[in-house]
Amino acid sequence: MTSRHLSSVPTIPAVPAALLYTIPEVMTLLRLSKTQIFEEIRRGRIQSVKVGRARRVPAQSLTAFVALLIEEAQEVA
Fold it and tell me: Boundaries of each Helix-turn-helix domain copy (predicted)?
């Protein structure tokens, strides 16, 4: 790869400060619907944890999901 090609590869910014996000927060951060978020969780593409009765998504899972989306987009292109 040339340096020109490497500069066109987007970098993934760090997810904001929280370690765990609620589903509504994930919806806002990813700009996806609740249905889409739960579908990605069901498919295992977004990891989540239960804290009591509440479902939370770890920040690192959001970063990994965005990286997966970028990887998939590059495979298609």
Answer: 20-66
Whole-angstrom distance, CA of residue 74 vs CA of residue 69: 9
Do 64 and 15 form a contact (C-beta atoms < 8 A)? no
Phi, psi of 63 (to 5 degrees): -60, -40
Q: Phi and psi at residue 38, in whole multiples of 5°?
A: -65, -30
Q: What are phi and psi of 57, to 5 degrees?
A: -115, 120
Q: What is the pLDDT of residues 31-56, one digit of tens each?
A: 999 999 999 999 999 999 999 999 99
User: What is the distance between the alpha carbons of residues 17 and 4, in angstroms, rounded to a whole number?
Assistant: 32
Within-domain flag for 1: no
Domain hosting 38: range is 18-76
This prediction's pTM: 0.75
